[in-house]
Predict the 3D structure of the following.
Amino acid sequence: ALAVVNSFTAPVSAANATERENEARRAVIPDAAEFKAVDAALPDGVVSAYEGVDAGGATLGYVFTVEGRGFDGTISVMCAISTDGAILRVSTLDVSSETKTLGKTANPEYTDQYTGQDASLAGVNAISGATITSTAYRGCVETAFAAFETIKEAGK
């Protein structure tokens, strides 16, 4: 009986998951008309990579979903990088494994400092009392930059 129910609900669930993912990507590159999956060998930790394009097909940037090890579990970060190598926006997808204090990496006071940064991340400061999670978050963003460099070198 469950197999029958699943045969009806699985396509709907998959479509809903895809739409939620597209909404999350639109949140980090709002001007993109479409997101195309990037087919390339990417660094460990990169869950997905998409090229955000405008209505004319021009690349606006790339969106990477990256997972890393936080203080008490896995954290998930979405990072959008423009074609010139600057962060457009980062978004915290999941830090639910972290304690309330450590979950501050989900707050705009922390995430907004990444906007406009290049791969050096020179202006990014850790959260006092949440150094492990902050460092893991930064590591996710650094992994996104490594993936960005891989895509650039491959000419994608």
About this structure: The two ends are 45 Å apart (CA to CA). The longest helix spans residues 2-28. The mean pLDDT is 83.
